[in-house]
Amino acid sequence: MQQQPREAAADAKPHGELHKPRSEAATAEQCLLDALRLTRNRRALSFELRTGMSLARLWAANGRSDDALELLTSIYSRFLSFDVHV
């Protein structure tokens, strides 16, 4: 039995939704990785932390919590190495 157009669209929608976020996540990850490289090259540590936090959120949402923690730990440790005089 052939599906009606509405039923076919309803069946296809979950399949498309599964792939769409993955491709958007991959694009977002690449943009954030590029931004992270740029902030590191410019030694802009506060911007590196902000970018790292965004990337870590993306990774954690996609099951890469260990990678997210490692990234943030490496950035944060450099904040702790500053010699601050008040």
Fold topology:
Elements: H1 5-41, H2 45-61, H3 65-80
Helix pairs in contact: 1-2, 2-3
Brief overview, please?
The chain has 86 residues and is an all-alpha fold. The protein has helices at 5-41, 45-61, 65-80.
Number of helical regions = 3
Q: How much β-strand is present in the residues?
A: under 5%
* Total number of strands: 0
Number of domains: 1
General form: flat
For the largest beta-sheet, the strand count, sense and barrel status come to: none
Instruction: State the helical fraction.
Output: over 70%
What's the end-to-end separation, in Å?
78 Å
Cα gyration radius (Å): 20 Å
The SSE order reads HHH
Walk me through this protein's architecture.
About 20% of the residues have low confidence. It is flat and about 40 Å long. It has 86 residues and is an all-alpha fold. The chain has one domain.
Summarize this structure as a short list of keywords or feature phrases.
86 residues, mainly alpha
